[in-house]
């Protein structure tokens, strides 16, 4: 997947079901048998707390305390007994579950690369390359590492496929809204008057000239790669596992970056879908054995302005304001079986061996080589862009929980909502009407892993 020679160490229809999810019908994760569930990985956020004015979440821990709401991950712990924790990664932490122990050299290499990654892409570091772009009065030429090519390429595709609603130049809007490098969460008084492309903020396609991994600007530009950056790190680390694990057989692993998961196991992992209204509850489950699974929600990273309006980090880049009609999204991307350990220096030069007929070759290549990056970006894009529009460009499955507690899912989503409705594969009509469906089914009620809803990371 990744070539680390230059790194520190080496028109589609969407079948849906729309349903209200009453609070009385949600499943409490704590009622699931204690031997079959793992409650995510951030202790603080999974104890019912939000990230409201909490820029420093507790680091992940492979050994949850007895008093926390986490439960022993017996099933997964037996299958993947070795856990490497990187508690400072991107400000949210990262856990690597493997079936064989990683040698110290590889663990150190991963740790060093995480630092290298942040030194290039973090907008919270003044001395990062992104930080220098933000403070360059007259712009300049900024060279990023070769491994950043895949990230920039996907942002090109997301910008085009969302008509500009996903744009890394949204960093300026986040800063104006208070999500700045000091985590002030204090919006500028005139934030709304200057937010978004409609008010003249820089845009990725016009104000950032890209030549491979070199970005050229002519004025200060505040980039934020948070929509895809955490997922991209996971993909690059998976490449390191394939390249440097040093074992005769491919290792099994789960990389857990707090809402962004990459699963590579012989048997499926059951993942609970966290309820954005209550982290102690799940609204459904999925089963994944090979591929990426990412979640996004404003539930863990939100704050208020002086007038009491709720703000969060999931913005529409056109107007620069938080999206308020979506509560949570979940995206699954399944690459070809060989793609997890396939090396490529461009993250886009080797064509996928399995093509989705509804998408072009380049998007299938992205899914093959950077599946978590794609899932991460799409989980954000679903806040601003209809799923049918995105599925015309990318191969993925998704589930969406709207702010009004209605939900939708694509036909091959690898799971479903609890107490959902039986439905047939019926296309969304051009008017957006949905068929009437009224037959209830009972959900499975166990999970080995929770997909915590993502919060803002340090990129």
TrEMBL record:
<keyword id="KW-0274">FAD</keyword>
<protein>
    <recommendedName>
        <fullName>FAD:protein FMN transferase</fullName>
        <ecNumber>2.7.1.180</ecNumber>
    </recommendedName>
</protein>
<keyword id="KW-0808">Transferase</keyword>
<keyword id="KW-0460">Magnesium</keyword>
<dbReference type="InterPro" id="IPR003374">
    <property type="entry name" value="ApbE-like_sf"/>
</dbReference>
<keyword id="KW-0285">Flavoprotein</keyword>
<dbReference type="InterPro" id="IPR024932">
    <property type="entry name" value="ApbE"/>
</dbReference>
<dbReference type="GO" id="GO:0016740">
    <property type="term" value="F:transferase activity"/>
</dbReference>
<dbReference type="Pfam" id="PF02424">
    <property type="entry name" value="ApbE"/>
</dbReference>
<feature type="region of interest" description="Disordered">
    <location>
        <begin position="47"/>
        <end position="71"/>
    </location>
</feature>
<dbReference type="GO" id="GO:0046872">
    <property type="term" value="F:metal ion binding"/>
</dbReference>
<keyword id="KW-0479">Metal-binding</keyword>
<feature type="region of interest" description="Disordered">
    <location>
        <begin position="339"/>
        <end position="363"/>
    </location>
</feature>
């Amino acid at each position: 997947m990744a070539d680390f020679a230059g790194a520190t160490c080496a028109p589609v229809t969407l079948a849906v079901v729309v349903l209200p999810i009453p609070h009385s019908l949600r499943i409490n994760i704590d009622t699931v048998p204690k031997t079959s569930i793992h409650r995510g990985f951030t202790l603080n956020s999974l104890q019912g707390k939000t990230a409201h004015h909490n820029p420093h979440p507790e680091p992940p821990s492979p050994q949850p305390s007895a008093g926390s709401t986490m439960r022993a991950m017996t099933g997964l712990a037996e299958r993947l007994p070795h856990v490497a924790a990187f508690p400072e990664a991107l400000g949210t932490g990262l856990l690597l579950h493997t079936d064989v122990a990683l040698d110290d050299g590889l663990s150190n290499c991963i740790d060093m690369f995480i630092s290298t990654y942040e030194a290039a892409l973090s907008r919270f570091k003044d001395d990062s390359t992104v930080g220098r772009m933000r403070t360059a009065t007259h712009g300049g030429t900024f060279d990023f590492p070769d491994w950043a090519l895949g990230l920039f390429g996907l942002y090109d595709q997301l910008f085009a496929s969302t008509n500009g609603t996903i744009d890394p130049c949204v960093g300026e809007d986040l800063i104006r809204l208070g999500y700045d490098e000091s985590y002030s969460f204090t919006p500028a008084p005139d934030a709304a008057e200057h937010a978004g492309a409609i008010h003249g903020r820089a845009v990725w396609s016009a104000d950032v000239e890209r030549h491979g991994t070199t970005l050229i600007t002519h004025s200060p530009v505040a980039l934020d790669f948070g929509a895809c950056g955490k997922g991209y790190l996971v993909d690059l680390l998976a490449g390191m596992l394939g390249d440097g694990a040093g074992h005769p057989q491919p290792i099994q692993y789960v990389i857990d970056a707090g809402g962004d998961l990459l699963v590579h196991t012989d048997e499926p992992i059951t993942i609970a879908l966290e309820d954005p209204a209550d982290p102690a509850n799940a609204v459904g489950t999925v089963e994944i054995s090979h591929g990426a699974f990412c979640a996004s929600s404003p539930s863990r990273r939100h704050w208020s302005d002086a007038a009491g309006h709720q703000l969060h980090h999931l913005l529409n880049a056109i107007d620069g304001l938080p999206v308020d009609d979506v509560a949570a999204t979940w995206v699954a991307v399944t690459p070809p079986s060989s793609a997890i350990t396939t090396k490529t220096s461009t993250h886009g030069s080797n064509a996928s061996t399995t093509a989705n007929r509804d998408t072009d070759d380049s998007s299938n290549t992205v899914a093959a080589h950077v599946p978590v990056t794609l899932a991460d970006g799409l989980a954000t894009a679903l806040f601003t862009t209809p799923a049918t529009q995105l599925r015309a460009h990318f191969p993925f499955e998704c589930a969406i929980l709207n702010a009004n507690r209605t939900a939708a899912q694509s036909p091959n989503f690898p799971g479903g909502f609890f107490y959902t409705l039986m439905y047939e594969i019926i296309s969304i009509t051009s008017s957006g009407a949905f068929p009437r469906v009224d037959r209830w089914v009972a959900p499975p009620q166990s999970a080995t892993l929770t997909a915590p809803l993502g919060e803002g990371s340090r990129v």
